[in-house]
Amino acid sequence: MTKDEIVAGLAEILEEVAGVNPDDVTEEKSFTEDLDVDSLSMVEVVVAAEEKFGVKIPDDEVQNLKTVGDAADFVLKQA
Amino acid sequence: MTKPDVVITGLGATTPLGGDVASTWEAMLAGRSGVSKLTQEWAAQLPVRIAAQLAVEPSEVLDRIRLRKLDRSEACALIAAAEAWADSGLADAGLDKERLGVVVGSGIGGAQTLLAQDDILEASGPRKVSPHTVPMLMPNGPAAFVGLEYGAKAGVHAPTSACATGAEAIAWGLDMIRAGRADVVIAGGVEAVIHPLPIAGFASMRAMSTRNDDPERASRPWDKGRDGFVLGEGGGIVILERADHALARGATIYGRLAGAGMTSDGYDIVQPHPESEGGGRAMLAALRDSGIAAVDVMHVNAHATSTPVGDMAEILGVRRVLGDHPVLTATKSMTGHLLGAAGALESIATILSIRDSVIPPTINLDDPDDALTLDVAALKARHMQIPAALNNSFGFGGHNVALIFSRA
């Protein structure tokens, strides 16, 4: 799995959960500030990402995943 | 200290008869039934397979992402509130949000969410339970989402008194303005529990009509053939405003909320008092609060749910307090029983009856009960001048709320 594939997968999740336009999902974007994902929807994104990529994202790690790129890097390390 | 006048400056609804107030009112005056057969697979096993479902699905009004985070009752609240808010013209009035309150209740709360998420918990485990579950099922959710939408900061409240909830919310809104805690209150009720569990529960109490093969004729208040209520869903919201505040901004005023009365029976958890002792006291309290003479209360939008005992008890209460001159109607014959939303929807009908000088019909009243000793607008709408009118709502738990509306 490449980083681009993970970003594309996150874009699918963000569209489904929070109605984010997939074209807006790029590595430097912040989930909360740029993409308007609220804290409860972020939990949904995390659970969906765990399932999609077959990884575990611990709760205390989630606060470090500020941007789409942070999340993609984390998934890449775990996968 | 004199009580400030409180007026109604906005109305909103989504009901089994229409997706807004205008379509609902038109259908009511035409005597249309909103009751239909439940065609969902889960309904097949139930003793009751009819209900009054929303005429316009929330998904036609709110986007998919919004609806993911809302119980159906909360969606009804936001849809009805949006119409009422737009109707009031307050969006452009420069309202101080610290003077804006919300009082919106539901009888049962987010039961559809609770039950759906329990299914997920059982099937897939706790991690699959939606993080939106709690704000979706909490009983104050509809009030809180409305408060958030309009930035209300004077207080957001969620009274709950079963089928009296919608009327009780309006009564508390009146108190909030009279007490000086708000200039404007978004008030009303919502309910959306057309789901097998609540239906099975009400059906087990033998409270519901089982006229499954003839849905449009199932809700028949005061008729000899009545056999229980028909469950409805939806929401009703009114904008209450201090009269001088409304006048100062040149608002369109529907009418006055002249008085309210709230009592409790202290009698039985579900049975109404057979002579409407507590209901009568609520009507009397509302009348005294309004300062309006009984003779001017020309119309009663009755609670009348189509149950054998309750319908007739209310008649005794109305006669005792108002006399034999009011013309009654039971709009639940068309809308079904919207539980926590009923009092709000029926308040809207009452306000429009006063404004338009017309009482919507009680449909299906083909063979009136011998104890029906008051005049009812049976089968077709009745045109008449209405200086003031009463709306009754009674709820399981022995809650009684009476509201009196009058011309502005």
UniProtKB/TrEMBL annotation, chain A:
It is found in: Cytoplasm. The modification O-(pantetheine 4'-phosphoryl)serine is found at residue 39. Pathway: Lipid metabolism; fatty acid biosynthesis. Gene3D superfamilies: ACP-like. Residues 4-79 form the Carrier domain. GO terms for biological process: lipid A biosynthetic process. Keywords: Cytoplasm, Fatty acid biosynthesis, Fatty acid metabolism, Lipid biosynthesis, Lipid metabolism, Phosphopantetheine, Phosphoprotein. 4'-phosphopantetheine is transferred from CoA to a specific serine of apo-ACP by acpS. 4'-phosphopantetheine is transferred from CoA to a specific serine of apo-ACP by AcpS. This modification is essential for activity because fatty acids are bound in thioester linkage to the sulfhydryl of the prosthetic group. PROSITE patterns: CARRIER. Belongs to the acyl carrier protein (ACP) family. This is Acyl carrier protein. The gene is acpP_1.
UniProtKB/TrEMBL annotation, chain B:
GO terms for molecular function: 3-oxoacyl-[acyl-carrier-protein] synthase activity. Involved in the type II fatty acid elongation cycle. Catalyzes the elongation of a wide range of acyl-ACP by the addition of two carbons from malonyl-ACP to an acyl acceptor. Can efficiently catalyze the conversion of palmitoleoyl-ACP (cis-hexadec-9-enoyl-ACP) to cis-vaccenoyl-ACP (cis-octadec-11-enoyl-ACP), an essential step in the thermal regulation of fatty acid composition. Belongs to the thiolase-like superfamily. Beta-ketoacyl-ACP synthases family. Its EC number is 2.3.1.179. It comes from Rhizocola hellebori. GO terms for cellular component: cytosol. Pathway: Lipid metabolism; fatty acid biosynthesis. It is an enzyme of class 2 (transferase). This is 3-oxoacyl-[acyl-carrier-protein] synthase 2.
